[in-house]
## 1
Amino acid sequence: MSYAPKEVDLVIRGAQVVSPEQIIPASVAIAGERIVAVGHDDCMPPARQEMRADGLFLLPGAIDSHVHFRDPGYPHKETWKTGSAAAACGGVTTVFEMPNTNPPTGTLEALALKLKAAESSYVDYGIHGLLGDDTIANLEQLLEGGVSSFKAFVGNTFGNLPAPTDGALLEGFEILAPLGIRTVVHAENSSIMARRQGQLQAAGRIDPLAHLDARPAVAEIEAIGRVLTLAEWTGARVHIAHHSAADSLFLLRQAKARGVDVTAETCPQYMLLNTEHMRKLAGVMRVNPPIREPRHNQPLWDALVEGVLDMIATDHAPHTPEEKTRANIWECDCGFPGVETQMPLMLTEINKGRASLMDYVKWSSVNPAKAWGLYGTKGVIAVGAHADIAFVDMARAGTLSQGRLQSISKISPWHGRSVQGYPIHTLLRGRFVMRDGHLVTDAAGWGRNIKPIQKMPTPKPRNTEHYSGAIVKASAHESQS
Ligand code: DOR
Ligand code: ZN
């Protein structure tokens, strides 16, 4: 009896498939939403559609752990439809969206509004719920309702959500640790920053660099240290958002060495921009944490290469041109769009030889998939995985232009920057959401919540070696377990 393989939906031929270990010439067959074969051209099953991708690289679709799509609450800045369109056009197939919307995503009612807005998404998504003093009682029901993870705004930022008290943070971690759920932390010390900002304002400073002066690196060092202390004590998984300072990397390095389950992201702006750009771009570049002096750029890059930082996220945080260009720096909203420009910016650096494409997929897709419990289904081009693929042309050169962004807020510090290396098609679960550089508009709504496929691994027992036996035994934590 001869074996007749079933016809599949799509076979992609002629490309190179990228993973952290290798770049290999291979064809990829897709049936429905999943990859069913990766291998030699001659071994592909018959397909309804054949596609040549000669000269292109196939990367697992990028997973951006940090976007603000502003919906509900600020639809004049961004909506799920426009934000996710930007993701699709940036080679990003999954996003994790932040809770500083209005209402903030800390109650079931607010979550319902967010899930409704997300129905128009072009890309798959996870929802970070809010961990704050007022939401501790809601954490478990938010998880049941569809959030994948939590966010604690330990440093103040857009939305002005009060920072959780240390007591609430500890309690939140105690609830989430046994569940294996990871909490994203905006790690800056609010009290240091409020006091500094007050002094700078009283002295009449309104210039762009006053923003950096109000948020010194020690605010990040202190907050990361505090969060890691509580995470280590409770065994909670944490994720440091937008790591900005070279000076706080040692804390991550040490905590990881002791077995703390901490992951961390940085963003292109912290590696590629600095105070030199701030003088010219002023409020357009205002963001929290601030973009710092040039001396921070290279150590952040090196930390990614070393694995102290795990991933690239964007902190896609759109505000309108009017909100970004006021003369007084304190009146400029913090943040800017990024989900659409991350891949060309990073590929440009890869083209310059600063790291390999294999490194890049680790930072853009593999490590985020692992951090959020998606790896295997996402983050990899392999049999059984979702067919989430960014088709990348490393030779294509161009200039980033804010006017062409999918975001509503068409203002970006990257405007006018030369890049080489673009995603040109984006496939999400077998369906193109971007093709030949154009959004596939009828794919709006194809995106889904990743919650049903999320599998956070069982947490490992805490490493308590460096605590004294007496303290560990006397703690409330130990007596509970
Ligand atoms: O600059 C920022 N803007 N940093 C954040 O952490 C939040 C963001 C926003 O939501 O606008
Ligand atoms: Zn953010």
## 2
Amino acid sequence: MPARPFRRSALIASALVVTATLIGSGAAVAAPGSPGTPRYGPGADGVGDPYFPLAGNGGIDVVHYDLDLDYTPPLLPDPAPLEGALAGVATIDLVATADLDRFNLDLRGLTASSVVVNGKPMAFAQTENELVIAPRPKLKTGQSATVIVTYGGTTTVPLDIEGYPYGWVTTYDGAMVVSEPEGSATWFPVNDHPTDKSTYSFAITVPAPAVAVANGLLVGSETVDGKTTWWWDAPDPMAAYLATATVGNFRLETDAPAGETPIINAIDVTRTPNQYVNLARTRAMLAFFEARYGEYPFVAYGAIVDNDSVGYALETQTRSFFSGSASEGTIAHELAHQWMGNHVSPGRWADIWLNEGWATYSTWMWNEERSIRTVAAQFAIVMNRAATTPTWNTVLADPGPTGLFGAAVYDRGAALLHALRLEIGDEAFFDLAKTWVQEYGGGTATTADFAALSEEISGHDLEAFFTAWAYTPGKPAL
Ligand code: ARG
Ligand code: ZN
């Protein structure tokens, strides 16, 4: 790997700035601490995201999660119901952003048995989505703390707001772990909002021959008495929904040429070659998107191709997840998310089109590169949809919690980007794409940030453009 010390520290700095601005509104109930007299109060039970009021927490900024998990999948051959057993120890390094006599982590469906703060056992309580911790001594603004939560329970199949499985999804041969938008609380105590990015390390113990696949680089594995522990290290700041610890019967395939991004794929042993053959294009796609968005931002990449819950994909950071099979278009989509969504993440869930619009547009560009279909033709297909369809009926920058993954977010989002490109020209458009990643990489950004940067880079007045495309329903005139 090329050394990138400058970038790394620049990114962390920008993450802190953005986090501070956005979390401000949902921070602790107590007045912010002054250096003089601390005024202790409870951290809020959410960061203030209107779509998911209990997601994340006020008054804390998590720096690192070290997750030590022991998992026993359902017993074969025919488990009924589908249940696994998870036992975890989460060691969480955090910084108080308010004077705290109490703070929360998100935890759902699992039971904490002990909480230790800075080496001392602490009082705690649990409600449906919240683990409430009373640190003693109390925490002052800016103070670091190490919180160790021992927890566990029976895993099932949690459902998201639309009724789709997400979070720690128990499967016949392990678990499919895909947590967008706020499902991480189903498998570890977490500050579950993209505005708090953290680094991660994992030690995941599973019955041999199962393989546990997490984010980042594989540090090692060891089998003792029929159980294998898999250690992974993910040193790039990451939003909680992008963490994974997927368990199954995988074959690991590593491609790590000197000086290039290592690619570590995990292929379920039941997959036939045609279900993953398109992964061979990953390295060419990496080069294609690096030319448009700038250097790949993380230590590694790769895919998980699982055999469960056919048809789902998620851009889990550094290790995109595909169920069933990985199509060329979806491979391009999830890879592009590493810049657009993962490195630059939504400041509020309402801004999800910044993820999905860019990822969809990225596939349009890849399809053009491969002579599958031109960008213009793909744009025309969306523009030909009737004004009465959901693509045009929705406010793009506020699709609602059940509209997060609807047609507007993906297709109107991509169409907005192409319309913007037509409006400001190729040079400004690709300058904007790279500057966007550079400026907000490592942190989060909103639709307003994107509109402002578009104006700044192009020199065009784009107020009417963004009003029509992002802030009002209806089909914009071209
Ligand atoms: N971000 C994922 C992708 O575009 C989609 C996740 C879909 N989630 C859902 N709840 N429908 O690849
Ligand atoms: Zn996507």
## 3
Amino acid sequence: MCGIVGAIAGRDVVPLLVDGLKRLEYRGYDSSGIAVVNGGVRRVRRTGRVAEMEAAALAEGVHADMGIGHTRWATHGGVTESNAHPHISGGIALVHNGIIENHEQQRERLQALGYAFESQTDTEVIAHLIDHHLKSGGGLLRALQAAVSELRGAYALAVVSRDEPNRMVVARMGCPLLVGLGEGENFVASDVSAIVQSTRRVIFLEEGDTAELTRDGVQVFGVERQPVEREVHVSDVSLASLELGPYSHFMQKEIHEQPRAIADTIEAVMDEAGFVPELFGADAAEVLADVSSVQILACGTSYYAGLTARYWIEGIAGLPCSVEIASEYRYRDAVADPRQLIVTISQSGETLDTMEALKYAKSLGQERTLSICNVPESAIPRASRLVHYTRAGAEIGVASTKAFTTQLVALFSLTCTLARLRGRLDEATEARHLDALRRLPGDIQHALNLEPQVRAWADRFASKHHALFLGRGVHYPIALEGALKLKEISYIHAEAYPAGELKHGPLALVDAAMPVVVIAPNDSLLEKVKSNIQEVRARGGEMYVFADADAGFGPSEGVHVIRTPRHVGVLSPIVHVIPVQMLAYHAALARGTDVDKPRNLAKSVTVE
Ligand code: G6P
């Protein structure tokens, strides 16, 4: 969701701010703005794309060597220019990511003090609060620190002032914010992609931190306002992963990057030559040793990765496993079990509901926590005892693809590690699983080669209003993921069912206008799936079947078949998700929707 970038330098920062905002576009937004200090504060804001705001800034000839920028995803107040950030009060300008819970009380108080509000946002409250505290004369940093101590909620903030043109101050609580260290210039950003063209040396601010940036230095202050030293990290995010290259869309690029992303993710397993606890962190042997069950918590596509893993964890490791949507778990009375392993799955590592579910589990005394995440040093892994990083590289398309398949690889490694610790993985089986993992990038490539056939199907889907996805067993979550992908980016209403549930309701929807997609791998449930296909055919439904080449499945009237590669055994869901990703991508393309930035959706959901 909202993105922040800021720079203080000995050069014009406007191009840096605009470029940074463009790189943050993927997080999801509906308006943007910049404010710079050059004599006074100058601000440019626009609804719509960053490019429109950029054009306005150029037309107005805005230049300065210090400024802040923001992409806003509306929460409090509609998508209007006056609600867009930066917000101004007196001589200060401010950008904010997060939600202030006590904004109404603060608004009343500030109105009583004579402040007039120009927006419906919670953010404007912070701007006025800082201006109010500035009047005590302690300077910008003190005013920011005093203001945040009166706020409840989540925030990442960057503030500049007309009266202190040589410094920028920032604060973080509950939302990601990092400081970038350059040579004679410094930066602030929501994520490293916004500043990576200027520097890779970053400090991840911690909860409750504030910091002051000048051209020549950065000083971070902890919760007690004492100066603190924070570790400097060197980001390895590649510029290539942030750029489209020869592709038309990031989603297309990311679908095709999956063989590489999976090869990178299994590298650690291959280096260790086996499923060892160390894959999950230094004290993993102790944490994983005698877990009684596994509770997986996640949202969206990551939740479907969890649903898939449940079949593995129960079937291979023999451990009870529940999977729950994070926003549900966090608000129910869960029964605590200190020996239960809590696994959070998150591409971004900053999804608020997943973070809050993790905090809730910890508050119940659940100490054994593991995060599977794609973004190093993000909030969720930092709050977890064990971490396994997927190595998908930056994922920019809102609809998750390579993050999902690498999450599945990580969850499979976790399953095998738990199985081994529990004496349920003999050497021969472990060798077989390792071999299957090693072959997986090649198997994925075979599935990618089906693209021309999938595209032909997608062209037919483009005119449909609804679609049904069916799967059974470990492939039921793949049907769910297929339906999610299709609705997210093509806006075709799609639902997924376990094929056996068909006759308990969805069969009533089936007619010639409703395409029915079936995931039909050559596994023990194949005959059951074939019967379910007959049930649909008998009602005149048009079937689109993804069947393994060795499944003995041929096309017939009303039954279209794409033969996926031979059945790859236990890792089959990772291969079968590839064609449904491509189906959604090409259906969206045929319908002319915004594939990488579907309406109303955001990549990083940092609000409830
Ligand atoms: C958003 C994204 C989805 C993603 C979900 C969970 O809804 O659009 O692609 O699956 O958040 O995100 P996470 O970063 O926690 O995996």
